[in-house]
What does this fold into?
Amino acid sequence: MESPTLLVDCRCQNAEGPLWHPLEQRLYWTDIPAGHLFRYDPTTETHEQIYSGEPVGGFTIQLDGSLLLFKSRGTIERWHSGEITTVIPEIPEERETRFNDVIADPAGRVFCGTMPTGDRLGRLYRLDLDRSLTVILDGTEVSNGMGFAPTHQQLYYTESDKCKIYLFDYDQATGNLSNQRVYVSTPDDGSVPDGMTVDAEGYVWSGRWNGGHLFRYAPDGTEVLRIPFPAKKVTSVTFGGPDYTDMFVTTAGGDNREVEGAGAGAVFHLNLGIQGVPELMSRIEV
It folds into this structure.
């Protein structure tokens, strides 16, 4: 089996949320605590920082190619060629926290989770096309990786501090979630499931924070593969490239490699001949 190769040694504090941009054929990711966004161009094998500011907990790619940034205080902004416009200035209930992981749905809505604060837990919101927000889940621990099954009839949702990946039934017409059940429970060993994606065969790929591996699970929740990384904190994964067999994996801990591993904070590449699918694009009115 191919081992992961170091693609970008960016030494991020917490590289997260990688997305392949299908219109540009480039990879984007965020370094959350540093408040940076990066992109990598495989044709030139170069990367650049394209944004510096408030932390971006997650982002989607809009149908026009711009980025929708989900930030601190519930702020949502559009980034396009370096220009930023505000979509939602803030969510009053989220002034003390930030968004974490987000995903566009088949209709172009966005499911977006927030972190807990000192005195209350987090939430999972749904941002509809008209910019209205609906609380889908309340009282969540660290809201994390999400992914749609190939049929788009189920949504996977990770609640890190509960060591759980859940599965919901999803109604594309309404954007509603129902029938929550546990898909995978990870060991209570100090590691937690983090960002994830779903491949073309319907298998789930999940990074393991403090677990040093990327895991692949069958649709029934059986572990079928684990890939070691030279970083304790494997944060997320996405598919990309011309045929979506390239895998891009983000890690954290680049500011403390003595403890976190020699490759901590870098972005890695894998190609196992397994095909992914393009991540869905958001269609929020801006």
User: Anything to note?
Assistant: Residues 257-260 form the longest helix (4 residues). The chain has a mean pLDDT of 97. The CA atoms of residues 73 and 261 lie 32 Å apart.
